[in-house]
Write a structure and sequence with these properties.
This protein is α/β, with parallel strands linked by helices. The protein folds into two domains: about 260 residues, Response regulator (Rossmann fold, 3-Layer(aba) Sandwich), CATH 3.40.50; about 140 residues, Response regulator (Rossmann fold, 3-Layer(aba) Sandwich). About 35% of the residues lie in helices and about 15% in strands. The chain is built from 13 helices and 16 strands. The strands form five sheets. The protein has a five-stranded parallel beta sheet with strand order 4-1-5-6-7, sandwiched between helices. Helix 1 packs parallel to helix 11, helix 5 packs across helix 6 and helix 12 crosses helix 13. The radius of gyration is 22 Å and the shape is globular.
């Protein structure tokens, strides 16, 4: 059942949020419940805080200098962000940390937004569940567009779900920021042109395959088997594997699919007889962990390489012995503490880890919650750029235009983004790094260790 989880907001910018979190966490302890169908709003504060310039990061633990006493700001139109993740169903290992992140940011944004003209706007974050189902996801997006009349959408945990949602956003002319990986979400399959209204934050399967290719080449592997889940995501991983592996003279000698709900894998017999030198898997938890366990039984000495759909503790906890030692590409969020201090992402990554674990009472972070953080921050910044007096259609267009023009040299959890009219992701291959499961956790696995 699609469920309205929470609608709350905040006045400060994304960069201020990084600085004031230590204080904000004390305030939001009572806001971590799961009340349904609730809307909380906050009266306009008497002062406004200084904002950081786009593309810069406030140092963790610092706050903007208080503004001098001012007259109360004027009240403007309330803004709404519509959020849809796969909180239940087969994609819940991805969608739950996304939902948690949305609730965390909503709790930080209870003061709403003050626009560039000094007008205060209440902010609602309306959180719905796609149930990991394209039809349910499309229904949720339709409701947000037509009934809730949201100004911007952050929607789509899974590629298939996002592809079902995108046409609705395009028809309604509202910006939609997906949290799924397939390039087809943001790019017309026939023309190769960017979809005008659609953006996304995750590194994609092309990046994933490129990094896997580097690793396999370093091992001297020339033949691989490829197992993938029968979904839009899995099929896209195979297509990118075929392209990048082929360019590096790595032959896929056997490939086959399995269903996301499978627990037995007869394909392992064919892998055993194929003689391939490594197995690459394109899937998400829990089935990615289960197939790894099956492969360990049938081909214990053949290297297994997983993909970026597993950068979450859910991949480890189901079959910790089987996945121990498995390498995979991930964003830098999973190894934030080990990054050099001058890394442009490090401060915000470390702060996100602190915020998320505090908000969830110790739950480990995942790259998927990070994708939600990036997307919601883009939505927030787009709304914060608007002048008062715009109608709904103009607000929707204004958010879209802001994202396309201003997410430049923008450090997020997924990489340093550079959105252009031709590229509504704006990440390069260096947005992913290699990690390995070590002692039940993700550890940095640099090329010199291959």
């Amino acid at each position: 059942m699609i469920e309205r989880q929470r609608t709350i907001g905040r006045r400060t910018t994304r960069w201020q949020a990084l600085g004031v979190l230590a204080f904000a966490l004390l305030l939001v302890a009572s806001a971590c419940g799961d009340d349904d169908d609730t809307t909380a709003t906050t009266a306009a504060p008497a002062t406004t805080a200084t904002t950081a310039a786009p593309g810069t990061t406030a140092a963790p633990g610092t706050t903007a200098a208080p503004a001098t006493t001012q007259a109360p700001v004027a009240e403007g139109t309330a803004y709404k962000i519509g959020f849809v993740s796969a909180a239940t169903g087969g994609g819940s290992s991805l969608g739950l940390p996304e939902r948690n992140t949305a609730e965390m940011l909503a709790a930080q944004w209870t003061d709403g937004i003050v626009g560039p003209d000094g007008v205060h706007h209440d902010l609602e974050v309306i959180i719905l569940d796609s149930e990991s189902n394209p039809d349910a996801g499309a229904s949720a997006v339709s409701r947000l567009i037509t009934e809730d009349e949201v100004d911007v959408l952050v929607a789509g945990t899974l590629s298939g779900n996002s592809l079902a949602m995108a046409p609705l956003a395009e028809e309604a002319e509202i910006a939609m920021i997906s949290m799924a990986s397939s390039r087809r979400i943001i790019e017309d399959a026939d023309t190769g042109e960017a979809r005008f209204w659609i953006f996304k934050t995750p590194q994609e399967n092309g990046h994933n395959a490129a990094v896997q290719t580097d690793y396999l080449s370093a091992l001297g592997v020339s033949t691989v088997c490829y197992l993938f889940e029968n979904s839009g995501f899995g099929q896209d991983t195979l297509a990118n594997g075929q392209k990048f592996f082929g360019d590096a003279d790595i032959e896929i000698v056997y490939s086959d699919s399995f269903e996301r709900g499978d627990t037995e894998f007869p394909q392992t017999t064919s892998i055993q007889s194929s003689g391939c030198e490594a197995v690459v898997v394109g899937a998400i938890p829990p089935v990615s962990a289960l197939v790894t366990s099956a492969l360990r039984d049938f081909v214990p000495n053949v290297p297994i390489v997983q993909g970026h759909g597993n950068c979450a503790f859910a991949f480890i906890e189901l079959a910790p012995a089987a996945v121990e030692g498995v390498p995979l590409p991930c964003g830098r969020l999973m190894v934030a503490d080990g990054l050099p201090d001058d890394d442009p992402q490090k401060n915000l990554l470390v702060q996100y880890v602190v915020d998320y674990t505090a908000f969830t009472n110790g739950e480990p972070v995942s790259t998927f919650g990070g994708h939600a953080w990036d997307a919601l921050q883009w939505a927030y910044e787009g709304l914060a750029s608007l002048e008062e007096g715009l109608g709904l259609d103009d607000r929707r267009a204004g958010v879209r235009d802001h994202i396309e023009a201003n997410i430049t040299n923008w450090p997020g959890t997924g990489g340093v983004f550079n959105i252009t009219p031709d590229d509504h992701l704006g990440l390069g291959f260096d947005a992913l790094t290699f990690v390995r499961v070590e002692n039940g956790a993700f550890a940095y696995f640099p090329p010199e260790a291959w």
